[in-house]
């Protein structure tokens, strides 16, 4: 039966019946996988936002430019790449949400810490203000 409240245990079933942990090694590897997936989610969101800014032709600060995105992309290529990144990051986000819904405290902490680390390294360099400023239709 699935837990309906937070619990702290090394015994957890994550996402599928075959992903069960019964010992500390498996549990710690599961927490590491959750942390890495959370950091990767923030990385993908960073790339998606950069691609969106590039596709819109909006200027953005030099600190958020990436060598991968310096190439000129065709209009449909940007939309296709943006749709792919959106789908991939949405899928990872939903899997992270379902992992938190396992109600294991360690999984919850690992995902939140991973999201914070990913935000610190990939998304805290002014891109949020660029997105807000570039979409502002101030008269």
TrEMBL record:
The chain crosses the membrane at residues 24-44, 78-97, 103-122. The keyword tRNA-binding does not apply. Keywords: Copper, Copper transport, Ion transport, Membrane, Transmembrane, Transmembrane helix, Transport. One of its GO terms (molecular function) is copper ion transmembrane transporter activity. It comes from the Eukaryota. Its main location: membrane. GO terms for cellular component: plasma membrane. Pfam families: Ctr. It is found in: Membrane. It is a multi-pass membrane protein. The keyword DNA-binding does not apply. Belongs to the copper transporter (Ctr) (TC 1.A.56) family. SLC31A subfamily. This is Copper transport protein. It comes from Clitoria ternatea.
